[in-house]
Every structure is written in C-alpha cells, then in structure tokens.
C-alpha cells in the first residue's frame, strides 16, 4: 500500500511537469495533417505520438459508441497514454485498458492505403463509417497471428491497414490492452505510434529480416554440423553444443517473430509468457551440459559443477511456476500484478548466477590449465559486451551504433567462438588419440620387434648350435673310430676331423668379426695390388664345389689387371659368402656368374656381382635379406629330376656347414664388411629366375704397393665356405644282401653320412640322399627297413619328411630316427609328434645309434609276430584294448577286408588286391614283408583257411561247400593246405573236434 501511494505521488509530480508541455490539448495541434510537400510524407512515415490523446478506462467497460460521443471528447488528454504505459494500474484500480484518439487530415490528391502501428498487447481500432457505425480491426503483440487484421509480409509488426480518403479528416479510436513501451532495438520501437506506407516498412524489414535470417541460418548450420560430428565421433560435447545452439536459434526466432509467423501462428511465441520460460530453460540446460564437458567441470571443479546444476533446476522450477500462473489466470494480463512481479523478480535474481557462474568457471578452468577455457571466456565476454551495448542503447539511445549491432550478433559471435573452441578441443582430442594410437602402434611395433628379435636370436642360437653340433658329431665320432680301428680310419678320419674343425673355426671367426665391427675394433690391413688376380683365385677355389653339383661357375673381369687398394681378408669373406650361397641355392645344371667392373661416375668404384639362376628371393623378404639372424621363407623351384619341387631357405646365404640351413649371419656379415670398407651392397631377385648380389667398393691407391700371398693358406681359408669336400660325395648304393637290413640316410652333410656308414656293420645296407625331397622319393621307391634323417636340410626338412612318410600308407610302417642339433624338450616333442620313432641329438654316440637301430628292429620283429597270428583280424576292433592297437592295424584290417569281400572268388589275385589297395605290387610286397615277414600270397591263403575253419565251427556247411565259399577250386588242395595250417583235417573239425 505504501509502495502504491509513493508511486501515485510520483506520478502526480510528473503530471505537473507535463502540464507545462500542454497537458490540455492545443486546438492547433489536434489534427495530424498529411501533405505531399512534407518531408515526413516524402519519407513515407509519420510519428503521431504528439497527436495522440488518451483516456484511462479503469473499469474496462467503455464502449466505442460511448467513447466516440462528442460529450466524451473533453476527457481525452494528450499524455495519459504515456503515464499509463509507465505506471499501469497505479493510475487507477486495475487500469489495464486505455482509449486513444487520433485525428488525421490527409491533404492528398487521391485516396491512399497506409499502415498504422501502436504498441500494446491487444489493439482494437475503430474507424468511423458514419455517426453510429464503425469499422473494427484487431491486432496486438499477444493476439494470435491468424486473428490479426493485417497478415501480409509485415507480420513481424502487429500493424493495421488504414485507408486514407483524400481531403477528409479521419478520427481514429484505439482500445489498448496492456500498452507497452518497446525497446529501441525492437522492430516495434522503430514503428511505434507511426503511420507509414507499406513499402517503407518493407525496405526496413528486408534489412532486419536478412540479418535475423543470416544469424538463424548460421546457428542452424553450426547445430547440424556438430550433430553430424556427434553421430560420427560420439563426442557428447558436440551433441550438447548442437542442442544449445538450436535452443538459442529458437529463442531468436521467438523474439524476431519467425516462430510466430511460420510455425505456430495460433500462439504468441514472441512475447509469450508460456514459451519464454521453456525456451530459456532449454538454453540454460544445454548450455550447462555443454559447458561441463567443454570445461571438464566434473574433473577440475566438481563443486561448481553441482552448484551450476542446482541453479538450472531452480530455473526449471521458477519457470514452471510462471507458466502455471499464466495458464491458471488465462493470460499474462489477467494475472495478479503483485504476485507476478514478485515471482518474475525472484526468478530474475535466481537466474543472475547463471550469467556469472560460466565466467567464474571459465576463469577457474583456465587457471587450472584448460587452454580451451580461454576461447570460452572470450566468447562469453563478447556476448556480455554486445548485450550491454544493446541494452544501453535500447533504453537510452546514447550509442551511435548501427541496427545490426542491436540484433543477435552477440549470440552468433558467442556460438561461433564456442564452435572454434570445440573444433580446437576435438582437434586436440584427435591429436591425443592419434598420438596414443601412434604410441600404441610404436609399442606394438617395438614389442613385435623384440619378439621377432627374440625369435631371430632363438633361430640363431638353434642354427649356431646346429652348426657346432654337426662338425662336433663328426669330430667326436671319427675320433672314436680312429681309436677303435686306427688302421682303417686314420687317414680318412683325420682329414674329416681337420676339415670340420676348420669349419668350426670359420664360424667362430664370423661371429667374432660381427662383434668387432659393432665394437669398432676390427682392424683393416689394406694392400695395393692386382685385385683381378686375387678375385680370380678365390673364384677358382670354388670350381670343385660347383662341379660336384654340375654347376658352371664363370668369372668375367672387366679388364685383365686392376691395381687398387683392397683388404684381402675382408674381400675374401664377402666374395666367398656370396659364391658359396649362390652354389648352395642353384640347382644342378645351373650357372653362377661372377663379374668385376669399374664405374667411373660419379667416383671411381669397383663393382663385383655374383649372379645365379636359382629359385630367387621372395619380394617381401628382399628388404630384410641383410638383417642379422633373418631367414626368409622358402621359394619353390622345379626339381631337375622332375620330382616334387625343391625349396630354398634363403635367409642365410653364407653360413659354413655345407648345404645345411645357415645361422642367419652370412649375408649380415657380408653387409657389415662392405659397409666397413665404405662400400654398398644390394640384392636383386626375380622369383624363379635367380638372384644377383652386387657390392661396390671405392677405389683408392694409397696403401703400400705389392703383397706376397700365401696361396695355399688362401685356398685353405676359402675351403671353409665350400659346400662339400672333394672326397665327401655320397657314393651310389649297391644291391642289398639277403640278410641285410636296408637303412636310408637322409643327410645334407657328406661327412655325417660317411660317419654313419662307418658305424654300420655288415648287417646293414646303407643308402644315402642329401636332402628331404630326394629322401622322400627314395623312401617311396625303396621301402627301406629304417630311415635315419637330419632335421635341418634344404628343400624339405626332416620333420616334413617324417610327416609325409607317416601319412603315406606305403611308408607309414618304416621306423624313422631323427638326428638334429635341437636338443631341447620342445624340439624332441615336435619330432615325436611328427611321427618319429626315435630322436637323437648331435653329437651322438655310435653305441647309442646302434642301440636305437637294434631296438627298432626288435620292435619290428614283435610286430611281425603279431601280424602272423591272424586271430586279431577276426575280432571286432573295439574288442581290443586301446594300448594294444598299433597304427598299422588299420592297414592290415583293410587288406583283410578286401580279401574277405572277394573270398569266394578263386581267381582273386595279388594284382587285383594291389589295384584295390592303391599300391604297386613291389611296394605292397615290401611293406607287407616288413610288417609280417610273409608274402602277400601266403597271407591271402591263410585268410581263406582261417575263414574256412570259422565256417566249419559255426555253420552246418559241409567241407566241400566251405572250400568253395573260401575260394578253393580243388577239395584235395583245400584239405592239404588246411592240415598244414592247423595240423588237423577239416573233416575232423566238422565232426566236433575243436582243435585250437
């Protein structure tokens, strides 16, 4: 009450001041005159505020007829509208309605159509037709768009159409509900209390709409873009930012009238008390959700994050109360002004921290190292400064700023800056993700490299062990042979010991050379001499090795003589490595070419190339061929004998030890030595056509001139690289004796073959093959009694040889002894799983080898006894214990089944049996002889006889019928054979004498 009295007193004082401005209307200023000569007319716009007279309708019950009556006109005063706008119901009890009067005198030559606008929630315009009739038009900011009298392209402004007659004075009456004072940046402020031509507003509206549409379009584009980013990257900061931008766009559309005009014309979305709290809440909500992720509030400012969330919920509650009050009262202008003012004021105060917390959060986050908070803070400040400029200029008009500054440029700048911040943040996240992925890839690569290195080292140590154990087997074995039989083995054994000792020394020297290169302690002793002569001698030292494989070794020098500086020992190691490997991996009948030439550009260089026509190197292995410990997978090449393809383990092309798989250091040593001599080495290969290794050494002439070579020593050193010794050829086998067991040795080292031959006594006939492919072919053709095979061999290793033999029913019965340098438990298990019957690690004792062979022969004798007794064939397979089942039982049952199927056929022969079993007659004979020590013909006869006895004992058939059923044509032959097999006449069996 006290507040109301103070305001009324203040209004009275203001009214007193206004009296000096002509509070009672001067007669000369009662009518607004429109003349073509006026500047306002030419501008197409008249402000009629000073010509407007008003009357406050406290009860709101006046009618147009009463107000338009002549007796009522003195009650209109010029400034009553202004007072009512500012003080509302304080001028009277619940003064919500104001009547306004405007007189217009259009001094025009013709009638014209104009538009008139006055700001209020609801506007009723009455245009007199005569003294008792009026034209009634409606408009207003809260009036639904479809109910307005004017719905043209200027619907953003609740104006009214006005038809001005030429020369006649026109008096208009306005009934205003909820008159307002629009801010200067509002579209209504520019045309409030204005009479204007449509084209004037159209021009102004075009500019205003363009800016609004541009801002809204930018916001929608940003929102859609970040929504797409969310669906692509699943970053919720993009989702909440997109929803925040959409909420801001909705807010701008609500205040600019687009939502009212285009979407929900039946609702007031421009000043609607219902939708405004909802829209603001959406803005606050998504702004909070976006900010908490952008600034990482839960991590760095959890307390502030909770406070912010509470304020958003408080805004939701206060907004809901506002909406409830408006809906319960039937509209904004029907609510209790005191309660509504209190609620709105409380809501405004409660929302104030929502404008301060983002600034505080941004500053705190920035101080805690969140660089993205800097852009966030700039975006907020840009919005605040624009809003400040907007509000100051709207209320006071003191800033000479263009119209677009008053608009929504602040939110647009804020959104764009936020978008920049998100882009930077997402870029940072992407970079961090990429860095993490790169780190993970690097970690995986490093782990893979370490695993690969471990595997390389494991292979290296395994192969090195093989390289050591093989010569040691020969050295220790031949030492034993010399001790026991000096007269027989002294000369040959001593040479084998010396040769293999030299191989061990060469291997040790290579390993030490690599270590010295890494340590930088390898000495170099250059000489200046004819390098062509030196190269020629090294190449000639390999001729014997090449001839053993029927390989043509050619040397083609570019000139007869070339005196340069070179390091004899290093050059010999490099060239010997390359030549020995070229010979090793070239098939019989191939060609190895060594060339030497001089290149003068860009500098004088010696080029040496070793080229072969072997299987070549796979393209994927070529880049790593010089890696230490690396051994590339094999490449196939047709066998010169037209058998199965051969394979080449190209990984090490330089380890000593004959044609054995190398240790994986040969090419690495050559590579390091070439680099040590300031040269370069390259490898080229085309699978199936061979490989070429070229190395280039710079030519200098500064070393001491001349050098005396000890050619025998050079030949001795080169011989360590030669694959097979001259006396190490594998001799052709002779025919086996009647009482001899045939042993097939598959071993690529001729010295090992010679040693194994030396420990075999006269009971064994020894046949040898130098690789797995030839060994497999020989085993299938020969069907030996025992096979002794090395594991590490070119072409096909011993494990694969064992698998193929054990899975072939022609050779599955042959006992196999594997010899290898791999003495670990895993390797033993692998060998046994491949089907090996025994496993010997090098170096092995000759007594152990002989004992293993004798044990296998004894096991075969027991197997022969088992298969001579045919009783197990007539028992169900499941009736035998599992431990009593032998792998060859299946083969014997298969033979027995084929014979039983043809039992009644007296013409069933061995040839027919071979056709059904899938073996040649010789192979079947050898296999069956090894299994049962009997012929196939005897086996067929015995199966017939055992079946006959079974029929005689279990059926009522007579002897003649049984003989015919089991395939005997002659009864006497049947009786004689039956008596020989069982020691009893078949007729006695039939009488009931069951003789076992």
Can you offer a commentary on this structure?
The protein has 996 residues and is an alpha/beta fold. It folds into five domains: 2-196, no CATH class; 206-370, no CATH class; 524-719, Heat Shock Protein 90; 741-868, Response regulator (Rossmann fold), CATH 3.40.50; 870-991, Homeodomain-like (Arc Repressor Mutant, subunit A), CATH 1.10.10. 52% of the residues lie in helices and 14% in strands. The strands form six sheets. Strands 1, 3, 4, 6, 7 and 9 form a six-stranded mixed β-sheet that branches. α15 (409-484) packs across α22 (750-759). The longest helix is centred in the middle third of the chain and has 76 residues, at 409-484. The radius of gyration is 56 Å and the shape is elongated. The termini are far apart. The model is unreliable at 1-28, 83-95, 181-186, 267-271, 636-663 and 725-729 (pLDDT under 50).
């Amino acid at each position: 009450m006290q507040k109301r009295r103070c305001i009324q007193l203040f209004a009275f004082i203001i009214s007193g001041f206004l009296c000096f401005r002509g509070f009672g209307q001067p007669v000369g200023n009662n009518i607004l005159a429109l003349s073509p000569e006026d500047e306002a007319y030419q501008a197409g716009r008249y402000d009629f505020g000073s010509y407007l007279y008003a009357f406050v309708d406290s009860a709101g019950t006046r009618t147009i007829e009463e107000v338009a009556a002549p007796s009522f006109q003195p009650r209109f005063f010029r400034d009553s509208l202004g007072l009512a706008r500012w003080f509302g119901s304080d001028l009277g009890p619940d003064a919500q309605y104001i009547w306004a009067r405007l007189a217009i005198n259009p001094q025009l030559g013709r009638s014209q159509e104009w538009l008139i606008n006055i700001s209020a929630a609801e506007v009723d315009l009455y245009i007199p037709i005569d003294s008792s009739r009026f034209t009634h038009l409606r408009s207003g900011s809260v009036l639904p768009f479809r109910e307005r009298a004017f719905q043209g392209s200027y619907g953003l402004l609740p104006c009214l159409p006005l038809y001005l007659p030429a020369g006649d004075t026109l008096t208009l009456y306005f009934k205003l509900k909820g008159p307002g004072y629009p801010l200067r940046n509002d579209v209504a402020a520019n045309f409030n209390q204005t009479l204007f031509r449509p084209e004037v507003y159209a021009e102004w509206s075009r500019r205003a709409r363009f800016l609004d549409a541009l801002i809204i379009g930018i916001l929608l584009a940003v929102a859609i873009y970040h929504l797409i980013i969310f669906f692509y990257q699943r970053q919720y900061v993009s989702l909440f930012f997109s929803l925040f931008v959409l909420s801001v766009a909705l807010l701008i559309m609500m205040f600019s009238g687009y939502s009212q005009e285009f979407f929900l014309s039946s609702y007031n979305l421009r000043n609607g008390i219902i939708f405004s709290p909802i829209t603001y809440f959406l803005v606050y909500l998504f702004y909070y959700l976006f900010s908490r992720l952008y600034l990482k509030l839960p991590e760095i400012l959890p307390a502030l994050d909770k406070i912010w969330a509470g304020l958003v919920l408080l805004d939701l509650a206060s907004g809901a109360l506002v909406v409830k009050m408006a809906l319960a009262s039937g509209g904004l202008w029907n609510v209790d002004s005191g309660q509504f003012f209190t609620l709105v004021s409380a809501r405004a105060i409660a929302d104030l921290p929502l404008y301060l917390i983002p600034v505080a959060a941004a500053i705190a986050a920035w101080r805690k190292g969140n660089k993205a908070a800097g852009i966030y803070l700039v975006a907020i400040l840009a919005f605040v400064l624009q809003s400040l400029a907007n509000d100051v200029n709207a209320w006071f008009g003191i800033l000479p700023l263009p119209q677009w500054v008053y608009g929504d440029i602040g939110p647009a700048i804020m959104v764009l800056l936020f978008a920049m911040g998100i882009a930077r943040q997402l870029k940072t996240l992407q970079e961090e993700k990429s860095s993490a992925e790169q780190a993970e890839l690097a970690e995986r690569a490093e782990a893979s490299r370490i695993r690969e290195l471990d595997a390389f080292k494991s292979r290296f140590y395994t192969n090195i062990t093989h390289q050591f154990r093989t010569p040691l087997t020969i050295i220790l074995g031949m030492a034993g042979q010399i001790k026991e039989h000096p007269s027989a083995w002294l000369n040959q054994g001593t040479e084998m010991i010396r040769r293999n000792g030299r191989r061990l020394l060469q291997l040790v020297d290579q390993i030490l050379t690599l270590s010295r290169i890494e340590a930088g302690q390898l000495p170099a002793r250059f000489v200046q001499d004819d390098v062509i002569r030196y190269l020629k001698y090294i190449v000639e030292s390999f001729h014997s090795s090449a001839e053993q494989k029927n390989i043509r070794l050619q040397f083609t020098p570019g000139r007869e003589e070339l005196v340069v500086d070179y390091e004899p020992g290093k050059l010999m190691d490099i060239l010997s490595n390359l030549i020995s490997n070229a010979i090793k991996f070239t098939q019989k009948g191939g060609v190895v070419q060594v060339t030497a030439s001089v290149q003068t550009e860009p500098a004088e260089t010696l080029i040496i190339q070793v080229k072969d026509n072997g299987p070549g190197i796979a393209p994927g292995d070529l880049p790593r061929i010089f890696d230490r410990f690396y051994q590339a997978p094999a490449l196939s090449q047709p066998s010169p004998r037209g058998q199965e393809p051969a394979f080449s383990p190209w990984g090490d092309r330089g380890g000593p030890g004959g044609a054995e798989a190398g240790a994986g250091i040969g090419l690495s040593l050559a590579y390091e030595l070439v680099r040590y001599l300031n040269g370069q080495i390259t490898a080229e290969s085309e699978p199936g056509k061979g490989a070429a290794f070229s190395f280039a050494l710079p030519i200098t002439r500064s070393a001491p001139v001349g050098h005396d070579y000890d050619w025998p020593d050079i030949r001795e050193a080169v011989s360590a690289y030669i694959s097979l010794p001259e006396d190490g050829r594998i001799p052709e086998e002779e025919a086996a004796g009647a009482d001899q067991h045939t042993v097939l040795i598959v071993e690529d080292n001729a010295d090992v073959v010679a040693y194994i031959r030396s420990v075999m006594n006269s009971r064994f006939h020894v046949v040898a093959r130098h690789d797995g492919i030839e060994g497999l072919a020989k085993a299938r053709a020969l069907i030996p009694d025992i096979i002794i095979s090395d594991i590490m061999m070119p072409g096909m290793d011993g494990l694969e040889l064992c698998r193929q033999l054990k899975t072939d029913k022609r050779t599955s019965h042959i006992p196999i002894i594997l010899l290898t340098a791999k003495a670990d438990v895993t390797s033993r298990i692998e060998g046994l799983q491949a089907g090996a019957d025994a496993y010997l690690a090098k170096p092995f004792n000759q007594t152990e080898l002989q004992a293993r062979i004798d044990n296998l022969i004894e096991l075969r004798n027991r197997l022969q006894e088992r298969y001579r007794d045919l009783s197990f064939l007539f028992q169900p397979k499941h009736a035998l214990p599992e431990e009593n089942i032998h792998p060859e039982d299946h083969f014997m049952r298969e033979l027995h089944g084929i014979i039983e199927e043809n039992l009644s056929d007296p013409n069933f022969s061995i040839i027919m049996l071979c056709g059904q079993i899938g073996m040649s007659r010789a192979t079947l004979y050898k296999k069956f002889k090894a299994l049962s020590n009997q012929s196939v013909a005897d086996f067929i006869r015995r199966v017939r006889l055992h079946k006959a006895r079974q029929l005689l004992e279990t059926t009522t058939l007579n002897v003649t019928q049984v003989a015919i059923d089991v395939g005997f044509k002659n009864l006497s032959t049947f009786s004689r054979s039956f008596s020989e097999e069982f020691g009893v006449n078949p007729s006695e069996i039939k009488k009931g004498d069951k003789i076992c």
